[in-house]
Amino acid sequence: MTAVHISGEQLHVAVGKWRKGILRIERVLKKTLPYGSAVGSRIVDVAAVSDVIRELSKDKDIAKHRIRVTLDTGAVMTKLLTLPDVKSRKYMRRLVEEHFSVGGVVSYTVLQKNDNGTVEILACMAEKELIKNYIDVFRGTGFGIGSIDISACGIIRLSEKCSMLNGSSYAVCIADDTGISR
């Protein structure tokens, strides 16, 4: 598994493997980005960021398929919503889209299913251009994106996959370009 985060100054890469419900981080890399090539999670200079990512593609230990990309929470709009529990992801996506006044790419993570037939979700909306830049940069450098998440959704999905966290209480602290959240 390869996870990537672009900040205003660096490209952060974590490489790890899942074994028996445990994620073992094997390597953490930081590559300096040319000044002004990214502002927060926004890619400003596609060519400059592509050059840095292309350099990573030469590393044989870094998986090139289904990488997980994480955006700063400041790069997207987020809302906590309570919605009817529907089976169709397509219909749920439409319900989520109705809660944002501007158009963009919408995603969501189910936080909790309630007894009354509703679900608590963390809904996210990002500008299409932001997502398109990421897809173009990574595909253009030989990487395949498996997911693009904000840090909070990434932590939620990670905790769902990590069996040792099931039924446990734990605290999470996320430090990104927008500050520290818990």
Description:
With 182 residues, this protein is α+β, with helices and mostly antiparallel strands. Helix content is 24%, strand content 40%. The strands form 4 sheets. Strands 3-2-1-6-10 form a 5-stranded mixed sheet, sandwiched between helices. The longest helix is centred in the last third of the chain and has 13 residues. The protein is globular, with a radius of gyration of 17 Å. The C terminus is likely disordered.
Number of E-type strands:
12
Contiguous runs where pLDDT drops below 50 for at least 5 residues: 177-182
Q: How much β-strand is present in the residues? A: 35-45%
Judged by helices, strands and strand pairing, the structural class is alpha+beta
Nearest-integer average pLDDT: 82
Give, in order, the helices and strands: EEEEEHEEHEEHEHEE
Helical amount among residues, as a percent range? Answer: 10-25%
Give the spatial strand order of the biggest sheet. Answer: 3-2-1-6-10
- Please report the distance between the alpha carbons of the first and last residues: 25 Å
Number of helical regions:
4
Shape: globular
Main sheet makeup: 5 strands, mixed
* Radius of gyration from the alpha-carbon trace, in angstroms: 17 Å
